[in-house]
């Protein structure tokens, strides 16, 4: 009982201190501003928000108290900023899924068109067999072969549809949908089995400029080459690990390692970036003639590991931390790999060969 009373007194004192701070900052009493500011202050305890979101909301809170603009117009603008903070982690994911869905629909339509022709051929072949003269048993055997052939094609289509759902059409590695599925399983193992989990995000430097200069056809070739290198990179890990190379979205890629060798991902990522940097890209015309050679690209990469201090939003926190490391690499001049260690004094650590 005494403990409960003490806790209640502490809580009261905390709120009295906050209200005094609000008074000094000129926050109008009996207004929506005070309720919203109290809510913003408590977001540090919301486990479904990422660390980056919590920091952004605290920055927003500090900005409100500094500017001291408590108009209705400013309140509306702050609520919009808060909304943007909440949806930011999902905006890129939705855009990526829309692109993948469009690609899958196009592939499915192409497949349907092909099978429509096969079914028409089956119809013509069946009519020819039935109307032709010959032994009844022989006709039945031919019909069975014809239907069996189309059945096999349809079964192949089902398997292909499963691949279309999780494979990126340009790079032929896992797409964002497949990445999300893999990460759900990896995080579950990390939580239930304490299985180490590391993520690297890699972004092609100045890719838009490269696309503008050389065209999307060449840009797609670059994406395919990067995907091929990443696919080889994850093969360096033993069977004790679950690994993934994926196109995360646009010119951004991901490497994931779930298993005892997850700590090796920074070195493998750096090695992969160095190999891609040395790759000699050729630009060929429609006839295959080399128009330009000696082109090179670089990548900026960020690597991080899952942290037990997280209480929720596990995937979002992992992606945010890898993203922060990647942008630290970009802001350091690009063509760099950086590891983010949030629990250490020096959080951003350059990865060297």
From TrEMBL:
<dbReference type="InterPro" id="IPR000160">
    <property type="entry name" value="GGDEF_dom"/>
</dbReference>
<protein>
    <submittedName>
        <fullName>Putative Diguanylate cyclase</fullName>
    </submittedName>
</protein>
<dbReference type="GO" id="GO:1902201">
    <property type="term" value="P:negative regulation of bacterial-type flagellum-dependent cell motility"/>
</dbReference>
<dbReference type="InterPro" id="IPR043128">
    <property type="entry name" value="Rev_trsase/Diguanyl_cyclase"/>
</dbReference>
<dbReference type="InterPro" id="IPR050469">
    <property type="entry name" value="Diguanylate_Cyclase"/>
</dbReference>
<dbReference type="InterPro" id="IPR029787">
    <property type="entry name" value="Nucleotide_cyclase"/>
</dbReference>
<feature type="domain" description="GGDEF">
    <location>
        <begin position="195"/>
        <end position="342"/>
    </location>
</feature>
<dbReference type="GO" id="GO:0005886">
    <property type="term" value="C:plasma membrane"/>
</dbReference>
<dbReference type="GO" id="GO:0043709">
    <property type="term" value="P:cell adhesion involved in single-species biofilm formation"/>
</dbReference>
<dbReference type="Pfam" id="PF00990">
    <property type="entry name" value="GGDEF"/>
</dbReference>
<dbReference type="GO" id="GO:0052621">
    <property type="term" value="F:diguanylate cyclase activity"/>
</dbReference>
